[in-house]
Amino acid sequence: MAQEDIFKKLVAHCKEYGFVFQSSEIYDGLGAVYDYGQNGVELKNNIKKYWWDSMVMLHENVVGLDSAIFMHPTIWKASGHVDAFNDPLIDNKDSKKRYRADVLIEDQLAKFEEKMNKEVAKAKKRFGDAFDETQFRETNPRVLANQQKWNDLHARFSKALNDNDLAELKQIIVDQEIACPISGTRNWTDVRQFNLMFGTEMGSTSDGALKVYLRPETAQGIFVNYLNVQKTGRMKIPFGIAQIGKAFRNEIVARQFIFRMREFEQMEMQFFVRPGSELDWFDQWKETRMKWHRALGFGDDNYRFHVHEKLAHYANAAVDVEYKFPFGFKEVEGIHSRTDFDLSQHQEFSGKKIQYYDPELGKSYVPYVVETSIGVDRMFLQIMAASYNEEELEAANGKKDTRVVLRLPAALAPIKLAVMPLVKKDGLPEKAREIIDDLKFDFKCQYDEKDSIGKRYRRQDAVGTPFCVTVDHQTLEDATVTIRYRDTMKQERVAIADLKGMIANEVSFKALFAKLN
Ligand code: GAP
């Protein structure tokens, strides 16, 4: 099935099974804003727990923070967001649609890549086992021609971005003959900058209202609390502050479901280090974060680093962790060496000294910062995309059957255990409830008695429940149940008394954390 179709199915699945809903749906929705349903909120909370505990429990020198969304407006002037948190925009005059100029060009680059990959796939099919992909890529004229086009465009695009040259971005779009996907025309406006922050007012206008912003990143809340945490926590450098919270951006190209939203959640950690040591710490955090992603078991080859062509105004090194989504490799997390830019700016704008006295060096300095920043919602989408499987099964009567199964890591699954009475009578429902009453303090359980057992299993597969327990007449005689495993669909008879131990082992975060050490 085409990757695009899989993605469409995944979006539909998220709605059908209570993971993600369009915000304000009964009013026809609000663009790029989403709500999480009964299963989505559980998965989201589990993702946050995986991140939070891996930061503040596994690292003695990382502590948490929960700062307010509203902050003093000068913070955004100091951080550079008022002046430089912009996207280059271009409008198509016929469709009146607005696009990010850089995204249009990136899509063009992706088209060249796609053409090369198609040639490779065709040749692979033709030559079978004897196929040498490296040699093919180095010699095939069509691949080489597309590679050359890619290289030329990439070099020109990187330069335009680095030079902040908006006229050149427009010229690239013209030269590449990029057309509006809606109108099909190349009738473009000039490229101009558009600030992504949402603004509002605090206080009544008669008092002289204060213009405030909805934070576009959680990081600034950490920077402005650096001194508070360092002093009250008696923290010694190197140390980190971690925070999970909402962020808001007036995204223009808001597409691909929850990949790019206007209201989203970030999990950010700022690690304060000695000046000069930041690039070593940057490498260490790159490795730590990649391990965290790979520990989920979705295949090491599906992740890669992407080194930034254009560094943000605050960074001296930056990479993204990218995952192979159904629509290609895309950023899930950013790791940035932010130098002392933010703390120095806040020192200057606030007039307060923001420094650290280093007893080993016997001097004070403004710490340097390495940041890890990941979107909860984007991580959610990555996990859903990686877990979603449509499987063909051999049915008992020899006919083909299919099931949709979410192969979620058990620790992240919204429901850990479904308990099902085989029939709705003979005391089986009561026994099932008794089992839930015992296990509900340890795991999120669900009682399900509607429809055939087969249908109930499918329902649980579709939300990723790793264990289903069936209570039957034998249960009443010998206190055993059937446990069915989501991934293998194997079933076995076990004692009720053993359930807790068996499930606890599998759904615990410990197994994931053990892979991080
Ligand atoms: N403090 C640094 C910072 O905010 P960023 O690369 O702009 O860096 C970090 O964002 C992460 O936040 C991204 O890797 C992505 O996972 C997530 N993110 C950013 N913008 C987003 C959006 N509009 N919708 C959903 N997630 C977003």
CATH architecture of the largest domain: 2-Layer Sandwich
What is the general shape? globular
Q: State the major sheet.
A: 7 strands, mixed
Tell me the number of strands: 23
CATH class of the largest domain equals: Alpha Beta
Gap from first CA to last CA: 38 Å
Could you please describe the fold and organization of this structure?
40% of the residues lie in helices and 26% in strands. It is globular and about 75 Å long. It is built from 18 helices and 23 strands. The strands form 7 sheets. It has a 7-stranded mixed β-sheet with strand order 3-9-10-16-13-12-11. The protein has a 5-stranded mixed β-sheet with strand order 20-19-21-22-23, with helices on both faces. By secondary structure, it is α+β, with helices and mostly antiparallel strands. A hairpin with a 2-residue loop joins strand 12 and strand 13 (328-339). It has 3 domains: 62-77 and 196-406, Bira Bifunctional Protein, Domain 2 (BirA Bifunctional Protein, domain 2, 2-Layer Sandwich); 86-193, Herpes Virus-1 (2-Layer Sandwich), CATH 3.30.40; 408-514, Anticodon-binding domain (Rossmann fold). The structure holds glycyl-adenosine-5'-phosphate. The site of glycyl-adenosine-5'-phosphate has 19 residues, from strand 10, strand 13, strand 16 and helix 13. The site of glycyl-adenosine-5'-phosphate (GAP) has 19 residues, from strand 10, strand 13, strand 16 and helix 13. Its EC number is 6.1.1.14. Belongs to the class-II aminoacyl-tRNA synthetase family. It catalyses: tRNA(Gly) + glycine + ATP = glycyl-tRNA(Gly) + AMP + diphosphate.
